[in-house]
Task: inverse folding
């Protein structure tokens, strides 16, 4: 697998305070990578250092194998798609001009910009006939965020950075946008780096999750690895105690498992997903498969790691 | 009103003189105020000194200002234009500075993030977004300048002020009104015109 991105001991200090101490991880080409962690852990700063919206104080960032610091920042940013939380659409431009802005600034002909903008709007589910001429203010928050995604795709970059793009939209729309983003990512095989504090979102979308704490990477792994092989107690606690996953308390774990005869149940049959997470955090299990049941040797349910990931992904985070 | 009706050519000539002085003054203020305002918005250290100096100049009474300028530029249109431009400078510079500084940070970040150069960011994002405020400043400056341009007659730059001063000298109320009403009309017309422009750039 080729590496699209590689961060080596990247750090950012502001005077005496340190925003990012040691960001070291890599993202494979075509991979969907989510960066999660408590607020103030440096995840957004790290993302913004990749396209040098924030200049790192130390360390090295390789984009497609090339040292980002060695390329002109403007040229670098034109190769990387960028979606930010506050949407950041240009209010004085039409939707079409917003999307094609990334092409117009590189001097592509108008007709091409226009055609490409329409293709991208189509792709994010906004029929250009209806939306191209509108101003951002005439769109809903969810639609504006779609335009933001369309803009990031327009220049056909290999890597797309997203900073909590769906944090400000309500949960129902958020889920829709996530599904669409997942579809677009599957279709285009873009490398996506996605910062979020919404854990279900990360579990729903990401191939790999990078967990940050106090400005450093604690673990980078697949969702299953985070659950079943947490690098430190912090990771399992973060998952088990996170406010976003409290809703899992109301979700029965067995609904995601398969019926089976259970030799030694780890948890009762009615256990919630949250209880499963907490049991994992407490280390009360031997195999990677979790057994739910009332009594040894009786009927029960078996939960594979992928089932658990699916269960977490199905949860909806409470509004931020 | 009698004078206005019976001397249309004179009114037209004085109107042109009046407009020349006012327009020239606002134009100079714009040419100086635009870069200064942008600089004040960009360079934090420059903002206070620039606005303070412009504010102090604004406080100098216009007649006194003309008196200071006459030894340098002589009597006439030039002195009037330069003198009056100083009053527009504060308003224009302030509005440019506020307009540019008020562009929301996420929008700037988005512009930078998608790979705009500094110049593109300014031309495609900051300036268009600041334009409504800049035009608003221009409007205030223009209306104000048309009013005080009446004083330009005092130093031989002509305009409707000529009639007002002549009317004062001869205690002729009709003549004073003949200078005043067209000045007011000109100011109002200019106000409406720029209001229209403001609305155009806002939408």
Result:
């Amino acid at each position: 697998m080729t590496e699209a991105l590689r961060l080596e001991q990247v750090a950012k200090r502001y005077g005496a305070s340190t925003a990012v101490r040691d960001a070291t991880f890599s993202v494979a080409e075509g991979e969907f990578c989510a960066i999660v962690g408590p607020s103030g852990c440096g995840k957004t700063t790290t993302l913004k250092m990749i396209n040098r919206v924030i200049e790192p104080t130390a360390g090295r960032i390789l984009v497609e194998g090339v040292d980002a610091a060695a390329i002109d920042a403007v040229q670098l940013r034109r190769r990387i798609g960028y979606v930010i939380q506050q949407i950041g659409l240009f209010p004085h431009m039409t939707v079409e001009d917003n999307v094609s802005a990334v092409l117009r600034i590189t001097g592509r002909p108008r007709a091409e910009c226009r055609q490409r903008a329409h293709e991208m709007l189509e792709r994010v589910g906004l029929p250009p006939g209806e939306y191209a001429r509108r101003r951002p203010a005439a769109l809903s928050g969810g639609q504006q965020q779609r335009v933001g995604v369309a803009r990031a795709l327009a220049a056909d970059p290999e890597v797309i950075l997203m900073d909590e793009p769906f944090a400000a939209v309500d949960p129902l729309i958020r889920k829709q946008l996530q599904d669409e983003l997942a579809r677009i990512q599957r279709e285009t095989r873009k490398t996506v780096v996605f910062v979020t504090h919404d854990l279900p979102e990360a579990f729903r979308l990401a191939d790999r999750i990078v967990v940050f704490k106090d400005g450093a990477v604690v673990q980078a792994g697949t969702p299953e690895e985070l659950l079943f092989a947490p690098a430190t107690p912090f990771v399992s606690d973060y998952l088990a105690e996170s406010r976003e996953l409290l809703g899992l308390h109301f979700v029965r774990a067995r609904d995601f498992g398969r019926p089976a005869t259970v030799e030694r149940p780890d948890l009762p049959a009615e256990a919630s997903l949250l209880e499963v997470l907490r049991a994992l955090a407490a280390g009360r299990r031997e195999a990677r498969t979790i057994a739910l049941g009332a009594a040894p040797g009786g009927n029960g349910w078996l939960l594979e790691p992928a089932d658990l990931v699916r269960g977490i992904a199905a949860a909806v985070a409470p509004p931020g | 009103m009698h004078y206005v009706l019976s001397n249309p050519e004179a009114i037209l000539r004085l109107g042109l003189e009046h407009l020349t002085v006012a327009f020239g003054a606002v134009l100079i203020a714009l040419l100086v105020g635009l870069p200064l305002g942008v600089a004040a918005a960009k360079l934090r250290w420059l903002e206070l000194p620039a606005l303070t100096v412009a504010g102090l100049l604004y406080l100098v009474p216009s007649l006194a200002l003309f008196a200071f300028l006459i030894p340098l530029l002589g009597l006439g249109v030039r002195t009037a234009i330069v003198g009056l431009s100083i009053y527009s400078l504060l308003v224009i510079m302030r509005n440019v500075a506020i307009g540019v500084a008020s562009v929301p940070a996420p929008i700037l970040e988005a512009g930078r993030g998608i790979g705009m150069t500094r110049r593109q960011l300014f031309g495609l994002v900051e300036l268009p977004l600041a334009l409504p405020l800049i035009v608003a400043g221009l409007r205030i400056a223009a209306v104000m300048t048309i009013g005080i341009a009446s004083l330009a007659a005092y130093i031989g730059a002509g305009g409707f002020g000529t009639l007002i001063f002549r009317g004062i000298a001869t205690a002729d109320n009709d003549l004073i009104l003949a200078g005043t009403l067209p000045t007011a009309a000109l100011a109002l017309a200019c106000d409406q015109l720029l209001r229209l422009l403001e609305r155009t750039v806002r939408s």
The longest helix of chain A spans residues 171-188. The two ends of chain A are 36 Å apart (CA to CA).
